Amino acid sequence: MLDNSYDKLSHMITYSKANLSEIVVSYVKNKILTGELKSGDRLVEADMSEELQISRAPIREALRELHMRGILSFLPKKGSQILEMSYEDIWEVFSIRIPLEMQVLTIIFEKKLLQEEDIDYLEALNNEMIKPDREQQAIETREKVFIFNASDLAFHKFFWKKSGSFRRAQILEDQFFQLLIGMNRDISTLGTIMEKYEEHKRIIDACRTGALDQVLAAFQAHMDSYLKVVTKL
């Protein structure tokens, strides 16, 4: 399950001592998951080098990778910054993500890839999302946001990987972070932890029925909850 600290390792994004550029990629992604980095924020190589205690070469390599993934942009004389996501951009990403993720779910259920233990895992993972609230843990906001977003990513990423479609999984993960950097400008658009917990639970319950149409309907309702609030951005 997830570690309850935003600055520790999670099972989705891990730091690798063997590859310094991976450290930087994970550093940036984790800052997005905490809500600290949002659309348009600048990344200063010198500051990152000092904080991470590594040279600038792997930082530049990581920034190039993040640019290729559509998470960063490069501006003349300004350097790297988190991708600017307009209201139209967010809607466009949702219009791509939703049918693509429905394809993933269709593959899983048509091929009968989901086992009972998989559903149990998803349920346990969903419970991790509300653990701090349930146990009334006193944690700072960015740690709570990290747990929320990292749990959401892990939940969806499980389906992406389970489908066996590597290309879809990579595209969907990149789109997850693109949406998050746009919605980090007003984290209220992400909804509450309990709202997302209940929406995920309805997807899990639909999975237990084995009926694809129920799974797709629960997933669409989950996405609709985001679509209704993005107009605030």
Report what the structure shows.
Helix content is 65%, strand content 4%. With 233 residues, it is mostly helical. It has two domains: 20-82, Arc Repressor Mutant, subunit A (Orthogonal Bundle); 87-232, Four Helix Bundle (Hemerythrin (Met), subunit A) (Up-down Bundle), CATH 1.20.120.530. A three-stranded antiparallel beta sheet has the order 1-3-2. A hairpin with a 3-residue loop joins strand 2 and strand 3 (79-82). Helix 5 runs antiparallel to helix 8 (193-209) and helix 6 (141-162) packs antiparallel against helix 7. The longest helix has 24 residues, at 87-110. The chain is globular. It starts with 19 loop residues before the first helix and ends in a 6-residue tail after the last helix. Residues 3-17 have low confidence and may be disordered.
Topology, pairings included?
Elements: H1 20-33, E1 42-43, H2 45-52, H3 56-68, E2 72-75, E3 79-82, H4 87-110, H5 116-134, H6 141-162, H7 166-183, H8 193-209, H9 212-227
Antiparallel strand pairs: 1-3, 2-3
Helix pairs in contact: 1-3, 1-6, 4-7, 4-9, 5-6, 5-8, 6-7, 8-9
Strand content: under 5%
Sheet of most strands: 3 strands, antiparallel
How far apart lie the N and C ends?
A: 32 Å
- Which residue ranges are poorly predicted, with pLDDT under 50 across at least 5 consecutive positions? 3-17
Q: How many separate domains make up the residues?
A: 2
